[in-house]
Amino acid sequence: YINIYSGHTNNWAVLVCTSRFWFNYRHVANTLSVYRSVKRLGIPDSHIVLMLADDMACNHRNPKPATVFSHKNMELNVYGDDVEVDYRGYEVTVENFLRILTGRLPPSTPRSKRLLSDDRSNILIYLTGHGGNGFLKFQDSEEISNVELADAFEQMWQKRRYNELLFIIDTCQGASMYERFYSPNLMALASSQVGEDSLSHQPDLAIGVHLMDRYTFYLLEFLEDIHPASKTNMNDLFKVCPKSQCVSTPGHRTDLFLRDPGSVLITDFFGSVRKVELTMETINLTDPIEQLESGELQKEMHTYADQLPVSEIIHQKPKQKDWHPPDGFILGLWTLILLVFFQTYGVKHLKHIF
Amino acid sequence: EANAVIIPQCSHIPPGRRGCLMETTVSPNKEELVIRPLHSGDIYTSFQFRTLWETDFTRENKVSHYRLFPKSLGQVISKFSVRELHISFTQGYWRTMQWGQPYLPSPPGAELWVWFQDSLTDVDGTWKELTNVLSGIFCASLNFIDSTNTVQPSASFKPLGIGNVTDHQIVCTENLTPWKKLLPCGSKAGLAVLLKSEKLFHSSFHSQAVHIRPVCKDDQCKTTSWELRQTLNVVFDLHNSGQGKNEWSLFKMFSRTLTEACPVASSSKIYIDITDNSQGEQFELSPATPLLSQAVVLGDRRTFSVYDLTQQITFGTICNVLKLPVTYSAHAGDMLRPLLHAERYVAGYGLQTGEIHTLMYNNHPYRSFPVLLLDSVPWYLRLYIHTLTVTSKGKDNKPSYIHYQPSKDRVRPHLLEMLVQLPPNSVTEVTLQFERALLKWTEYTPDPNHGFYVGSSVISSLVPSIVAMDTNNSRERPLFSSFFPSKEESSYFVRVYTEPLLVNLPTPDFSMPYNVICLTCTVVAVGYGSLYNLLTRSFQIEEPSPGLAKRIANIIRKMRGVPPL
Questions:
Q1: Whole-angstrom Cα distance, residue B223 to residue A300?
Q2: Which residue among B13, B133, B446 places its CB closest to the CB of A110?
Q3: Is there a contact between A241 and A216 (Cβ–Cβ < 8 Å)?
Q4: What is the block-wise mean pLDDT of chain B (565 residues), using blocks of 10 residues?
Q5: Which positions of A are catalytic?
Q6: Nearest by CB: B132 against A84, A109, A312
Q7: Considering CB atoms only, which of A111, A305, A316 is closest to B155?
Q8: pLDDT, tens digit, for every residue of A148-206?
Q9: Where does the signal peptide begin and end (chain B) (predicted)?
C-alpha cells in the first residue's frame, strides 16, 4: 500500500537569508520572493518564520526606499506593503536558526518567532547565502555545517516536529548541504552540485547590484504559475532551471522521502490547505460576564504628574543603597587576616576575645 | 509622597450594569493629521490616532472583550502590570534649527520607556519579558535590550521609570505593518489610508510611536481611562523626491487619496498650518475651507485651516486633492528660532581616548531656564567623571543637581543626570573624557568596523512661552496640542534629543585565532620533530660511495678476480 496523500494538517515555512552587506542584495531578494509566493499561496504570517540578516529595503544605499526588486527595470517589488520579518539583523545566527528548528527557545520568546509545528505539519525550509563544500556562512562570521543541519533534522524527527520536510538551498556547492541527511521524510533541492558555483542573474544599473540568483529567479517564475488549486507535482519542480539557464546543475534528493515525488503536490509545501468541517448542530454559549457588586469605591483626586519639578529634584535626598552581605572575596580576605594574626601571636589569645 | 501620581481604578458603576467589562457608549476614537510647511521647503506631516478605553486592568477578572483597543496591547498591559508605556521607532534626525520643534520629540533609533505599577515586585524579570513580547509585536530587535543598556533615571522622567534609548535600529515597512494593524480601521478607511510605506520611508525624517497612559476623564479628574495614542511624524523633502514645482498635494505626497472617514472615529480632521500665510501671499489652499481653528502649541499661537472628514461636503471635489502652489523665498529670518537646541559630538583622535562634547543653546534674549540632561553611555566607554566640566559663556556653571551611577562591565551602563541653569542667549558646553575598552572577541558584532552607537542624550526643560499656555487639561483640544499637560501658563515642557554618536572601538583582527593555530602547530611540529629525531636517531658509519672512475676500476678488478680498491 503506497500512501499518495500527505496526511498533513498545517503548513509552516522557515525562510532564511544569511548574508549581510549591500552587495548581497540578491540573497534578500531571493528570500523575499519565496516569502511572497508562499504568502500568496495561502500560508499566513503567523506560520512563516522569516529571517533576514540585513536590511536592504531601508538601507541608505537603496535609491528607492522600502522596496526590494527582483526583476531589473524595477518590475516586481517583492518587499511589498505587508511584510513581517521575525528575525532581523544580528538576530540571524546559527544558534537562533537551530533553536527555531528544534524548538528549544527561551520561554520569553514571542509566538511570531517560534516554529510551533507538530507531527502533522509540512515544513518548507529555504536557505540562501554564501556557502561551500559542507557549510553555509552566516553573516560573514560563523558557519553551519551539513552535519549540524542533519542532526537538527533528526532532533526534529525524534520530537515529532514535522510530517514531511522540503529543504531548498540556493548557494554555491549547495548539494553538499543535503548529503548527510539521515532522517525520514526529507526531500531536498539545491541549486548547484559540489564543485560548482551558483551564479547570479542580472544586475540593475540603477540600483547597482545583482538583483537575484539564477536558480531562485527561475523558481519564482515557476511558482508564479501555481495557484492554490493547481495539481503540479514535484517532478516539475526538479526540472526548474536546467543547465542551459542556470549554468550550474541543480540537484535533488528524494531517497529519504516515503512517497513518490510524482504524487507530491507543490501546494503540499508552498501552499496552505485548511480543512473546514461543517456542522449543523447548535452550540449553547454560557454567559461569562458576572454581575459586579455595586460597592462604594474610593475616589481619589488624580492629577497629572509634573514633568520637570525643579525644586524637588534639587532637594532630592540620595536613595538609600540596599545593604548587601559581604561577598566571598571580603570574607576570605578577613579569614586570612585573622588566621595569620592568630598564627603569629598564638592561639591563647582567642579565649580572651570570645 | 509629595508627587501626585495617577492610580487607575474602576469607576463607580451603578447596579445593573455589567461593570468594567463593558465599554463606553461614546465612541472614543479620534484621528487627525497636521500638515505644516516648513521654512526650509520641507513639509512636516504628523498623524495622530487616539483611542480611549475605560477599563481596569488591575482587577482580578481578566478583561476579555476588546472592541477598538487592540487586544495585543491590552494583554501586554494587564500581564506585565504596566502603568505607562512609550515606544518609538525613528529613522533620521530631527533638525531643530531648520525645522523648529516637533510636536512629539523622538530620538533616532528605537526608544522604550515603561512605568510599572507599584504592586510589581520583580521589575528586571518583567522588563526582560516585556521587551521580548514587544519585539514580537513590532517586528523590532528589542530583545537586545537587557540590563547592559537599560537605565532607571532618578529625575528626568517621572519617578519609577525604566527606560532604554537604543542606539541603532533600522525602521522599515516591517515595523510599520504591525503598527498599522493596531489601528481600529486598519489601513482601510480614514486617514490611515494615506500610509503607504514607499512614500513614507522616502523622507528626511520618519518616526512612528505608540503611547499608552492613563488620562483624566473629566475636569474633576476623579476617574481615569486608558489612552492609546499612535503617532506618525514624517518630514518630506519635496526636492529630493522629484517634485520639480513648488506645489504639493495629498496624492503627490502619499500617492493615495482620501475617500471616506473611518466609521468608528468620532472625529477625523486635517489641520493645515497657515499662520505664516495670513494674507494668502505664500500659498493658497484648494479646495478652500471656511473652518479655522487657533491653538496654542509649543508656546506659540498658530492658526489652522481645518478639513473635517466626517462631513460629506469635504469630499465634494474630485479625489479630495489639495493643491498648494507655494513660492518659498528666503524667509529664514522670519522663523521663530527654537529657544532650546542641542548638539553633541565626539572629539579626540586615536582609538584609546576621546571626549564627548554636548552643547546646549539658549536662544532666549533675556530669560534663563533650567534643563535636565540625561546621558546614558554604554559600559565599554569608560567615562572619567573627574574631567566633567560645564561652562557657559566661558565661565564655570555649577549644576544644581548631579546624579551619577557608574557603570559595571557587562551589567549596566553609565547614567549621568544633571540639572543645569542655562543663562540667557548663551551656549553651555558639557565635556567629558572617556577611554575605550577592549571587548571580548565574541562580543563584537558581525560588522564591528562600522562602529558602536551611543544613544542620544535627553534634555528636558521648561521653556518660557510667548503666549499663555492653557492649563485646563480636560477640555477638548486637538491632539497635537494636548500631549504634554501644562501646569503653568508661562512655560511649556520641551524635550530635545541630541544626535547619537558613533565611536570606533579598537577592533581586533578576527583571523588571528586561525593564524595562531597555524603558527603554533608549525612550531610544535618542526621543533618537537627535530628534537625527537635528535634524541632517538642512532648513527651508523657508512663508507661514502666511490667516484665513477673507481667504480669502473672495481668492476674490471672483480672480473679479473682481484680484490677491489
A1: 8
A2: B133
A3: no
A4: 28 31 50 83 87 68 70 85 87 87 86 82 83 87 73 61 61 81 79 83 88 76 80 82 62 78 81 73 68 78 81 57 48 64 92 94 89 90 94 91 90 90 93 93 87 88 77 64 69 86 90 92 95 90 84 88 82
A5: 130, 172
A6: A109
A7: A316
A8: 999 999 999 999 999 999 999 999 898 999 999 999 999 999 999 998 888 888 888 88
A9: none
Upstream peptide bond of B287 is cis (omega within 30 degrees of 0): yes
Spell out which residues of chain A touch residue B145, defining contact as CB-CB under 8 Å.
Answer: none
Grid cell in block for residue A143: 558557519
DSSP annotation of A311: H
**Ramachandran bin of A129, using left for φ above 0, alpha for ψ from -120 to 50, beta for the remaining angles:** left
Domain formed by B340-469+486-503, architecture = Sandwich (2.60)
Report the C-alpha dihedral over residues B106, B107, B109, B113, rounded to 10 degrees. Answer: -70
Beta bridge partners of B165: B111
CB interface of B with A, residues 386-405, below 8 Å: 400-401
- Residue B123 in contact with partner chain A when CB distance is under 8 A: no
Kindly write down the DSSP assignment for every residue of A30-60, as one continuous string: HHHHHHHHHHHTT--GGGEEEEESS--TT-T
Domain positions in chain B: 29-328, 340-469+486-503
Does B368 contact chain A (CB < 8 Å)? no
Q: Enumerate domains of chain A plus CATH numbers.
A: 10-270 (3.40.50.1460)
Q: Give the separation between CA B406 and CA A214, rounded to whole angstroms.
A: 54
d(CA B473, CA B457): 29
Q: Would you call B291 helix, strand, or coil by DSSP? A: coil
C-beta atoms surrounding B345 within 10 Å? 12
- In one letter, which amino acid is A317? K
> What phi-psi label fits residue A160: left (phi over 0), alpha (psi between -120 and 50 degrees) or beta?
left
User: What are the chain B neighbours of A319 within 8 Å (beta carbons)?
Assistant: 154
DSSP B191: G
pLDDT of residue B1: 29
C-alpha cell at A187: 526531500
Residue A308 has pLDDT above 80, yes or no: no
Judge: B220–A55 Cβ closer than 8 Å, yes or no: no
For residue A51, count CB atoms less than 10 angstroms from its CB and return exposed for 0-12, middle for 13-18, buried for 19 or more.
buried
Q: Which long-range contacts (CB under 8 A, 24 or more apart) does B180-184 make?
A: B181/B70, B182/B70, B182/B72, B182/B73, B182/B210, B182/B228, B182/B230, B183/B49, B183/B230, B184/B29, B184/B49, B184/B51, B184/B68, B184/B262, B184/B264, B184/B265
